[in-house]
Design goal:
The protein is an all-alpha fold. Helices cover 71% and strands 0% of the residues.
Length: 161
């Protein structure tokens, strides 16, 4: 069986190949994942323990998370020499955005909690919207076709106006 060759894209230079990475780059990636994992666990515990204050707690932890993640990504972008330039530049840019966002969130926790609420509501709304579309599409797949899709389409067609 022959291997299929995929076309090369500009993002291939940012691919992480553990066999080509130096031990220090691997350790930096593992450290970053470990720090992010611990922070994620702390955020989850705080939200479970203090549900009444969850928005401010979540905004505080999100701000701290963004600051730490930004610093780690900036450090990886500056000090990791064994990876491609694209990977380093991407880490620097993302790190600066995360650091700035974290500082802004920590400066105004009330606004950050409000933004967090809006983002959560938008994501829930998008989920329900997609669920509704998927349910309607699935309902039209059966042999009985007991859903109003064809009738709605015929009434909304240009000819019926």
């Amino acid at each position: 069986m022959s291997q299929q060759s995929f076309p090369h894209s500009p993002f291939d230079t940012m691919e992480i190949d553990p066999e080509k990475m130096a031990r220090s780059a691997i350790n930096a990636a593992r450290t970053m994942l470990g720090v992010l994992g611990v922070i994620g666990i702390l955020i989850g515990v705080a939200l479970l323990v203090w549900p009444g204050k969850s928005l401010v707690v979540a905004a505080t932890f999100a701000g701290v998370f963004f600051v730490i993640t930004g610093v780690v990504r900036i450090s990886v972008g500056i000090f990791t020499r064994e990876v491609s330039s694209g990977f380093r530049i991407l880490n620097l840019i993302l790190g600066l955005f995360l650091l700035f966002g974290g500082i802004v969130a920590l400066k105004n926790l009330t606004a950050a909690a409000g933004v967090l609420t809006v983002i959560t509501v938008v994501l829930i709304g998008m989920g329900w919207f997609i669920e509704g579309i998927a349910t309607l599409a699935q309902a039209g797949r059966g042999k009985s076709r007991a859903w109003p899709g064809p009738a709605v389409r015929s009434r909304l067609s240009r000819d019926s106006w």
